[in-house]
Design goal:
Layout (H helix, E strand, L loop, with lengths): L7 H16 L4 H8 L3 H24 L6 H19 L5 H29 L5 H29 L3 H21 L11 H4 L6 H13 L1 H7 L2 H8 L7 H26 L1 H22 L3 H17 L1 H11 L4 H28 L6 H24 L17
Helix pairs in contact: 1-5, 1-6, 1-7, 2-3, 3-5, 3-16, 4-5, 4-7, 5-6, 5-16, 6-7, 6-12, 6-15, 9-15, 9-16, 9-17, 10-16, 10-17, 12-13, 12-14, 13-14, 13-15, 13-17, 15-16, 16-17
Length: 398
């Protein structure tokens, strides 16, 4: 299948964002040693980045909706590159904490604008596939860049990790300039107008599916290392390969999710995928003691963790036809809330001394709620509409 080069700049941006977001988790001890802080304090750098994503997405989108999307995306990537470059030279914990917060600000906004741009560049019936192509950068980051950059950070110095991310950011800026088509901005909107979609029940159902249903997956991902080493008997030295297996699942699931969504429709696809999440997490709870089965479930859960990205973003764009970029930005906030909720609720059984497969049982409950809400959404809004909510871009260069 021929790849449309116009989507490549968005994928490169996703590659940089995925690398900076997930690599830090494997370098916490190295950063803690250099900055002379504890590992829990270093973990606050992850929280600071996530807070930047949640806060930055709606604010940056709100103040940029009247500007051409191409220039907006370049501006977001310039901010991303700048603050990741500064992370490489931050002298102490306080400055690093502030810089990581600033680094997270353009994350959700970039994907918010990028999601709408990708859908508009796609031909009719290919919107979900094009969105999945953008998120391919994020999945490839988990498959290739995170293990590679983690190794470089361990072997040489963790500051090289942020320098590599900044270089990826520079490439993203360059290719956004060269290959992304110019698109007209929406001059008939403003910040408060963009937020009106929050009055829509349809949008809140999508956000609920994202935060709770998708959050079930993070009960598994947040505690995957102790699950695999303690319950499944995987050697700690082999965990890098386990994470590569999960990353491979993410790459496959992301692309398959986009194709299936374009064929079945996003509503049916979303309900089906969250149901499969629930089944897979049930398997994790009951079968993780069997090492080979645990590895198969790792691939499956990795695939399902990204397969839902395209259909659920399409659902949100349908729920906010006049505020697609702001709605897509809120989706990024929703995914980060899912991350936080999954880690928090998944940790509760561990506090009571239960084994490391019990977070997955919590995930089963969360995904069950997601299935119920998804079926309700499909019943209310899954019927074909006479009015297209994602219009084809007629002003882009083909």
């Amino acid at each position: 299948m021929k790849i449309d080069k116009r989507i490549i700049p968005l994928a490169i941006g996703g590659l940089g964002i995925g690398t900076t977001e997930f690599t830090v988790m494997g370098l916490l001890p190295d950063i803690a040693k250099t900055l002379e802080i504890t590992i829990p304090q270093t973990g606050h750098l992850i929280s600071a980045y996530a807070m930047g994503v949640v806060i930055g997405a709606p604010i940056l989108i709100g103040y940029s909706v009247k500007f051409p999307p191409k220039k907006v995306l370049m501006a977001f990537m310039i901010l991303f590159t700048l603050f990741n470059g500064l992370s490489a030279i931050a002298p102490n914990y306080t400055s690093m904490l502030i810089i990581r917060f600033m680094s997270g600000l353009p994350h959700g906004a970039f994907f918010g604008v990028g999601t709408v741009v990708a859908a508009k560049m796609a031909g009719k019936g290919k919107e979900a596939f094009y969105i999945s192509m953008m998120f391919t950068g994020l999945t490839v980051a988990n498959l290739v860049m995170v293990p590679l950059v983690t190794y470089i950070g361990h072997t040489f110095h963790w500051r090289l990790y942020f320098a590599i991310v900044a270089v990826i950011g520079l490439f993203a800026i360059l290719f956004l300039k060269l290959w992304l088509p110019a698109m007209e901005s929406n001059q008939n909107t403003h910040f408060l107008e963009e937020l009106k979609f929050l009055k829509n029940k349809q949008a809140w159902l999508v956000l609920t599916i994202t935060a709770i249903g998708f959050g079930g997956l993070f009960t598994w991902l947040s505690y995957i290392t102790p699950l695999m080493t303690v319950v499944s008997g995987i050697q700690s030295s082999q965990m890098a390969y386990v994470m590569v297996l999960a990353g491979a699942g993410m790459v496959v699931g992301n692309l398959v999710g986009g194709v299936v969504s374009d064929k079945l429709g996003p509503e049916k696809t979303c309900a089906l995928l969250i149901f499969l999440m629930m089944i897979s997490l049930t398997g994790v709870f009951f079968l993780s003691e069997h090492q080979n089965i645990a590895l198969i479930l790792t691939f499956m859960c990795g695939a399902l963790s990204m397969s839902i990205a395209s259909p659920i973003n399409i659902m949100m764009m349908k729920a906010a036809p006049n505020s697609e970029m702001m709605a897509a930005a809120f989706m990024q906030a929703g995914f980060n809330i899912a991350n936080a909720m999954g880690a928090f609720f998944g940790g509760i059984p561990l506090e009571y001394g239960l084994p490391f497969n019990y977070p997955a049982l919590v995930g089963v409950g969360m995904t069950f709620i997601g299935v119920v809400v998804s079926v309700r959404y499909m019943y209310l809004y899954g019927k074909p509409s006479t009015e297209e909510t994602v219009t084809e871009c007629v002003s882009c260069d083909k």
